[in-house]
Specification:
Elements: H1 2-32, H2 41-49, H3 53-72, H4 75-85, H5 106-156, H6 159-163, H7 167-209, H8 211-258, H9 260-266, H10 269-321, H11 327-349, H12 351-368, E1 390-400, E2 403-413, E3 418-422, H13 429-434, E4 444-449, E5 452-453, H14 459-463, E6 466-469, E7 478-479, H15 480-485, H16 493-502, H17 506-510, E8 519-520, H18 529-543, E9 547-551, H19 559-573, E10 577-581, E11 593-598, E12 601-606, H20 608-614, H21 617-626, H22 634-646
Parallel strand pairs: 3-10, 3-11, 6-9, 9-10
Antiparallel strand pairs: 1-2, 1-4, 4-5, 7-8, 11-12
């Protein structure tokens, strides 16, 4: 019974912990997603179109010509039916056609009408080509500008944004959503604009031909538009769900393909395939839901249009028999009627397309509205050449308001000093170093380089003077030469080779099939861990930065690789301010000063010998790694000894 109660209590605690974790996760998502006030979609579209105003004027002029030709298209047939076959006299506004015939013969008038058909078609075709070409040009360039704008904005966001957003979703927005917007701008939008211009002219001509029939058509249109508008919201909601699930597909695929080695190593291909199957089926269901709603619109609009057309045919028959209307006029009217309802039919058909474009614009805007938390001041300071002095003055930092990571850090590092940073996991080591290049900004206090707050410097120029060697060096798909030169693109071939020699990398590079021109796989997976680290060191050497940050550069290496990397690091560290995070304490034993971070505070500070004499956290960690004592928490040990003495 006691064990059952214990189990129930444990389950309750786990449930409570899970609830708290969910709350914290929700806070994290909300807090990191700081947004500017939403400006609406129209200002974004207007801003994107502004550089292409001249092209838009050309498109507008071509559309007007195309619209005029579309309105004129039925009139040659009216002339044939009324004035050639029907023997009616030409109306006064068409008497000028007689000037092109040498006699009153109807065959010549028929020839003129036939030529008119060809001319109208040719002019309309040329105008259609111009507006199609320039519309596509605008769409392509707008899509290009939009991709650049999104990517540029993403580059300016702090790492905190990426801590709470899936890369796959961002990739989906930059690719799929931009393509959707481009497709809408180059096809659907052009069709809507041409139809809208055409309908204005047709309304006037329809009232001229038969005003009561025109009233029927105009009277039905608002009801059709209201009917379509009611369904638009449902289609948009379903489309939003489709795009969300499509983004999830990209995320699942990206994670599965990037981690393919781990997937194969653990034999979890079935799990990854199931993940893709689940999210793919959700996408199918959402897409079918959107299609069900959309499929109702077009038939209903088509039936309404046919009822209107049938009524006009029935009424017009009586008017023609009573000589109140000609067959040619009826033909022109019916031609206009079909085109008059075409925008409504197109709108019904394109509701899904419009909804997709709207959703895509909203997803793009949600990224662009995210506040750039790492920004430059209006008149930033040129950093010049850093000496390398670094100061932390009462620095505090937290990812979430209720969860502090660093608490009142005060630290002064002199130029040329080597500082080691160690401590338990989660103590804030990496966060502390991330504040120096402004990957994050401190919540309070100041981080200074050479006596100037880092937020006052020009961001790019400041980061250019800080070198990095990380635990897992990221190599890009390309040549070894390009990967080393990534540290400084203007480095010469001699500088690249000298950096590789100093990093103990020249030897293994020379043994490769194409030397420095050898291609490395994505993320450098074709190289060993030690080789990647040495290329990372070469990249830092060629950068020649006065400040160097090393984040556990040997943590994942074997003994032989570590020896080569440490030799390279010794060359790299000469004459620089160096801060090294290390779990392997032997790598920072010779540092000028060692900081022990625990709970977001500097718990211990001193040289290796000084810290060993303290017999505190550092000494215990060092003895554990040296294998001389059992694993004991020195803080708790002091408490236990005190309790024993009291006893």
């Amino acid at each position: 019974m006691e064990s059952e109660n214990t189990g129930n209590i444990a389950n309750q605690n786990r449930n409570e912990l899970s609830k708290e974790e969910n709350k914290e996760e929700n806070k994290k998502d909300n807090s990191s997603d700081k947004k500017k006030p939403r400006k609406g979609l129209f200002p974004l579209v207007a801003q994107l179109l502004k550089p292409y105003q001249k092209w838009l004027y050309i498109v507008l002029f071509a559309m007007l010509i195309e619209t005029a030709m579309s309105l004129a298209a039925p009139w040659p047939l009216k002339i044939i039916l009324d004035n050639v076959v029907g023997k009616h006299k030409l109306p006064g506004y068409l008497e000028w056609l007689r000037d092109f015939s040498v006699s009153e013969q109807t065959t010549e008038l028929a020839a003129i009408a036939a030529i008119g058909v060809v001319l109208i078609a040719v002019i309309g075709a040329v105008a259609g080509y111009i507006d199609n070409y320039y519309t596509e040009s605008v769409a392509q360039y707008v899509a290009n500008d939009l991709r650049q704008k999104i990517y540029n904005h993403l580059q300016k966001l702090s790492l905190q944004y990426y801590d709470t957003h899936k890369i796959g979703n961002l990739l989906s927005t930059i690719t799929d959503d931009v393509i959707t917007i481009q497709s809408f701008a180059s096809t659907a939008l052009l069709s809507i604009l041409v139809d809208s211009l055409t309908i204005l002219g047709m309304v006037i001509l329809m009232f001229y031909l038969n005003w009561d029939f025109a009233l029927i058509a105009v009277g039905i249109t608002p009801f059709l538009l209201l009917f379509v508008a009611r369904f638009k919201k449902a289609v948009k909601t379903a489309t939003h769900e489709v795009r969300k699930n499509q983004s999830e597909i990209v995320s699942v695929l990206q994670q599965g393909l990037e981690s393919v080695r781990s997937v194969k190593a653990f034999g979890r291909q079935d799990l990854e395939e199931k993940r893709l199957k689940d999210v793919s089926l959700q996408t199918v269901q959402a897409a079918l839901k959107a299609r069900r709603v959309k499929s109702l619109l077009s038939p209903i609009v088509a039936i309404t249009v046919s009822l209107c057309t049938g009524f006009i045919l029935w009424r017009s028959a009586g008017l023609i028999l009573a000589d109140a209307m000609t067959i040619g006029a009826l033909t022109v009217f019916l031609s206009y009627l079909s085109k008059f309802f075409k925008p409504v039919q197109d709108f019904a058909k394109m509701t899904n397309v419009i909804a997709q474009a709207t959703v895509s614009l909203e997803r793009v805007q949600s990224i662009l509205d995210t506040v750039e938390t790492i920004t430059e001041k209006e008149n930033p300071v040129e950093p010049g050449n850093f000496k390398g002095d670094i100061d932390f003055e009462h620095v505090a930092f937290s990812y979430e308001p209720d969860t502090p990571v660093l608490l009142d850090i005060n630290l002064s590092i002199k130029s040329g000093q080597r500082i080691g940073v160690c401590g338990p996991t989660g103590g804030g080591k990496s966060t502390l170093l991330s504040l120096i290049p402004r990957f994050y900004d401190s919540v309070s206090g100041e981080v200074k380089i050479d006596g100037v707050n880092v937020s006052d410097y020009k961001l790019t120029e400041m980061r250019n003077q800080i070198g990095f060697v990380l635990q897992d060096t990221v190599l890009f798909f390309g040549t070894i030469y390009d990967n080393i030169a990534y540290g400084r693109p203007d480095a010469t071939a001699e500088e690249i080779m000298e950096a590789a020699k100093m990093a103990n990398a020249h030897e293994f590079i020379s043994q490769m099939p194409h030397g420095y021109d050898t291609m490395v796989g994505e993320r450098g997976l074709t190289l060993s861990g030690g080789q990647r680290q040495r290329l990372g060191i070469a990249r830092a050497i060629v950068r020649n930065s006065p400040i160097l940050i090393l984040d556990e550069p040997t943590a994942a290496l074997d003994t032989d690789s570590e020896k080569l990397v440490m030799e390279a690091l010794e060359r790299l560290m000469k004459g620089r301010t160096v801060i090294t995070i290390a779990h392997r304490l032997s790598t920072i034993r010779d540092a000028d000063r060692i900081l022990v971070l625990k709970g977001g505070m500097i718990a211990e500070n001193g040289t290796h010998d000084e810290l060993m004499k303290l017999s505190g956290i550092y000494a215990e960690l060092y003895r554990i790694q040296a294998g001389s004592t059992p694993l004991v928490d020195p803080v708790n040990q002091n408490t236990e000894n005190s309790d024993q003495n009291k006893a």
